Amino acid sequence: MVTARVLPMGERAFLLEVASLDEVLAVHAALGADRPSGVIDVVPAARTVLVRFDPDVLAPSAARAWATDAASAAAPGDSAHGPTVELGIVYDGADLSDTAGLLGVDVDELVRRHCGIEWTVAFTGFAPGFGYLVSAEWPFDVPRLESPRTRVPAGAVGLAAGFTGAYPRETPGGWRLIGTTSARLFDPDAASPALLAPGMRVRFRPTGPAEVQARPVAAAAGGIGPAAAGGIRVVEPGLLATVQDLGRPGAASVGVASSGALDRTALRTANRLLGNTEGAAAIEVTMGGFRAVADADVWVAVAGAWGPVRIGGREVDPYVAHEWPEGTELQLDWFTHGARAYVAVRGGLDAPVVLGSRATDSLAGLGAAALRAGDAIGVRGESAGPVPVAPPSAWGAPQDDEIELDLAPGPRADWFTAEALATLFDTVWTVSGAADRVGVRLDGPALPRARPAELPSEGMVPGALQVPPSGRPTVLLADGPVTGGYPVIAVVADASLDALGQARPGTRVRFRHARPVG
């Protein structure tokens, strides 16, 4: 039997906090064995299991009751017989010798201990397919690098704290590198995308360098490719242009964020204007400066951020479906209000499907790469009905001078002083220049902590207000990491996330208390 403390993570998720990693694995297994409709994600971490649910399908009280009942029936050791995966490894890491010296052993002893024991995948995060492996037989607490590397190659095997893990793709990282594996750790086209899932057992098998070099490690983000008949060609992408739909929720347990449009209402509206399904893929244009040419006669609609829109040099209205004749150019000037506009084409845009979505994940490198000049994009035939006669609802320029966002409770509010909680709601915050699809850093006063301890990694959701040691919060967005180690003081309510997606550097932000749900 496991006793779990329920901690709120906004109005659509909660954490089950338990006493040990063994209990995390047992609770995760119990929740996975009987998962009701409406549960979107179940994400284990170091001392918690995140449960994310859809309140329109499963009431919050019912979700909490199901989770706590399942946890109380779990027993440590329930997940002890997961499958075992063998990973070939060459012990050639750049930090191997230094790490052995730090731990007071020679290199041979470090290698013998690392490959001579059985590891367990405790949880995933940081990047799709990155497993945090632990073992009761591993005695070392390994410090991270003082200065993280800007580039860790795919396949690198590292150590940090009491964990070992392998990088599925090239990324920055601060773990100490001891070796290299050729295993394909994440394959988005596979039935089980992550080779290492929570609860699995892992053994490292020393191999020669030739075996590691013989096989690819991981797939990178793909390009759009040649356009089908009726496609469009990008002339100038502007600051950033990506293909987005409503995202890929449900894969957080293997390290994959939900991604998708940051202003979901604008995407849905642009699609409804054209008679598309609401979630059809469109182009998310950040800050404007976008130009493209139609390779056939198509219909187009632009919604979201505000700025001049031209077709063939003639200015047209946003939030209206327009004919876009073959050979003419669509141009979005730099936006005067808002940060992101959505260019939808009747039938929906084509792009590689990864885990059920065409969305580009900028952090994980999933989906098509950011659009570049010369990219061609096909148009699909997935219209749901005729082009409507009139816009589906009233529209106008997004508010971006000052916005008010509803805040729901976070799991670690008690890590902060009463003064910090008052400051959070009394301050007029400012969106800093560090704002992208991963998250928005806010400028303002520091939020002092009541507890200076380091927090073990735990599941995250879009809207989470993480507070790093600087005391200034960052709000995670759709491409944000699925686990994190900074305490979450509060969570932006789901209904407020679209407004935050339109915030520009310099936008003032006020927080107010969200009404309780369920």
Secondary-structure blueprint:
Layout: E1 5-8, E2 13-17, H1 21-33, E3 39-44, E4 48-53, H2 60-73, E5 84-89, H3 96-103, H4 107-115, E6 119-125, E7 127-134, E8 149-152, E9 156-160, E10 163-166, E11 171-173, E12 176-180, E13 201-206, H5 209-213, E14 232-236, E15 240-244, H6 264-273, E16 282-286, E17 290-294, E18 298-306, E19 309-311, E20 314-316, E21 322-324, E22 329-332, E23 337-345, E24 376-377, E25 402-409, H7 418-426, E26 429-435, E27 439-443, E28 458-459, E29 464-466, E30 474-476, E31 483-484, E32 488-492, H8 497-501, E33 508-513
Parallel strand pairs: 5-13, 25-33
Antiparallel strand pairs: 1-2, 2-4, 3-4, 6-7, 6-13, 8-11, 9-10, 9-12, 14-17, 14-24, 15-16, 16-23, 17-22, 18-21, 18-23, 19-20, 19-22, 25-32, 26-27, 26-33, 27-30, 28-31, 29-30, 29-32
Features:
single chain, 518 residues, alpha+beta, Gyrase A, domain 2, Cyclophilin, Jelly Rolls, 4 domains, seven-stranded mixed β-barrel, six-stranded antiparallel β-sheet, 8 helices, globular
Describe what you observe in this structure.
- The protein has four domains: 5-72, Gyrase A, domain 2, CATH 3.30.1360.40; 84-213, Beta Barrel (Cyclophilin); 232-377, Sandwich (Jelly Rolls); 402-513, Cyclophilin (Beta Barrel), CATH 2.40.100.10.
- The protein has eight helices and 33 strands.
- Strand 6 (119-125) and strand 7 form a beta hairpin.
- Helix 1 (21-33) packs across helix 2.
- Mean pLDDT is 91; it is low at 212-220.
